[in-house]
Design brief:
The protein is of the alpha/beta class. Helix content is 34%, strand content 19%. It contains 13 helices and 19 strands. Helix 2 links the parallel strand 2 and strand 3. It is globular. The protein starts with a strand and ends with a strand. The model has no long low-confidence stretch (mean pLDDT 96). Bound molecules: nicotinamide-adenine-dinucleotide. The site of nicotinamide-adenine-dinucleotide (NAD) has 31 residues, from helix 6, helix 7 and strand 13.
Length: 367
């Protein structure tokens, strides 16, 4: 099986889906690796590093002409879909539920689509879970970005000139990114509070030394570990529960997402007016519409002295670690779907079933 590692075409993307070390492992498994020239450059991996480990460096056109499977991080652009051939396998994140047009287009070319973001969140698939590996790094980066934009430090400081009180950090959404944000903010010395619709996150917050803000009296529930959409009643109760902490916070990080939907609004215009001038809000849900009404994706806006950061593609800012972990996730997946160097897509396997979105002219998952 020939696998091609493509150069990302998304503007500002610094990551690469497969690093030279993982290319070596894939070749060791019996795969032939083609690498698009320049694929690793933004992550500081040169073509010669890939070539020395056995990859063949090709143009994008030649990758499409020769490969059985093509791998990248971001969804394909339309030119890529047009280049696909019957029977070829496209592997990347696609977020099929909100990108059914991409799925239809790939399917109409007779190609197959393996969507990495759709890998089921089961124990056996943890090593392939690109959402977790990237969200973990993004959670760290959000705290660092927030700290950089703040005009105060995180830890308590006792000096001859007086005592500096620790920063207060409030985190909305305690999934993978939120948990790493709590851990990072705690390590830097902040006092951390967090809230989530899933009550099971209370213990996780407390185990990291944070205080959990409970929204009492209204249940939202979850499905397969993911949050369901919160009701207006929950939203009202949540406002009451968090507003005092919001007014005191130096840094707010919002991470709340509901699969297949626009991100829920957790900090509206009225609530942001409660925040202190000088405070910073990092909205990690900016690309899904934002958790704050003032968020503009990709921009930092100032409102009444509060900075609102519309965080976009934070893992790309940590491309060394992000590429390394993404590549390991891809390697683990290849061990499942090409164990002896040849593609074996077992549709009875839960992981394949969840993430093979279309194949042989058939769409298996719809929005
Ligand atoms: P996510 O990115 O989908 O959402 C982030 C967080 O926002 C979630 O914790 C969610 O509950 C919360 N949220 C949604 N609406 C909210 C609202 N209105 N108010 C407050 N919070 C809200 O989540 P994720 O990081 O992808 O994690 C989703 C689930 O998957 C979690 O249960 C996580 O533990 C689980 N998970 C399992 C595995 C595995 O077993 N392989 C791996 C990773 C994650």
């Amino acid at each position: 099986m020939k696998i091609a590692i493509l150069k990302e075409s998304r503007a500002g993307e610094n990551r690469v889906s497969v690093t030279p070390t993982v290319v070596k492992s894939l070749i060791g498994m019996g795969l032939t690796c083609l690498v698009e020239s320049g694929a690793g450059v933004a992550s500081h991996y040169s073509d010669s590093e890939y070539a020395e480990l056995g990859a063949s460096i090709e143009s994008r056109i030649d990758c499409f002409a020769q490969a059985d499977a093509l791998v990248q991080i971001n969804p394909p652009i339309s030119e890529d879909i047009q280049r696909l051939k019957v029977g070829q396998l496209w592997i990347s994140m696609v977020y099929h539920r909100s990108n059914m047009d991409v799925v239809e287009a790939i399917n109409s070319k007779g190609a197959s689509l393996f969507s990495l973001d759709a890998i089921p969140r089961i124990s056996r698939a943890q090593s392939m879970d690109v959402l977790s590996s990237q969200a973990n790094l993004a959670g760290y980066r959000a705290v660092i970005e927030g700290a950089y934009q703040m005009n105060k430090i995180f830890p308590m400081l006792m000096t001859a000139a007086g005592t500096v009180t620790p920063a207060k950090v409030l985190i909305f959404g305690v999934g993978v990114a939120g948990l790493q944000a709590i851990a990072t903010a705690k390590r830097l010395g902040a006092v951390v509070e967090a809230t989530d619709v899933r009550p099971e996150t209370k213990e996780q917050v407390q185990s990291l030394g944070g205080k959990f803000i409970e929204v009492k009296g209204v249940e939202v529930g979850s499905e397969g570990g993911y949050a369901k959409e919160a009701s207006d009643e929950y939203r009202k109760a949540q406002r009451e529960a968090v507003n005092k902490s919001l007014a005191q916070a130096d840094l707010v990080i919002t991470t709340a997402l509901v699969p297949g939907r626009k991100a829920p609004i957790l900090v509206d215009d009225e609530q942001i007016s409660l925040m202190k001038p000088g405070a910073v809000l990092v909205d990690m849900a900016a690309e899904q519409g934002g958790n704050c009404t003032k968020t503009v994706a990709g921009e930092i806006i100032e409102f009444q002295g509060i900075k609102v950061i519309g965080a976009v593609n934070m893992p790309s800012d940590l491309s060394a670690n992000a590429s390394e972990l993404f590549a390991r996730n891809v390697w683990e997946l290849m061990k499942l779907i090409a164990p002896k160097g040849e593609l074996v897509l077992d549709r009875n396997d839960e992981i394949v079933q969840g993430s093979l979105i279309c194949s042989a002219g058939e769409i298996h998952h719809r929005a």
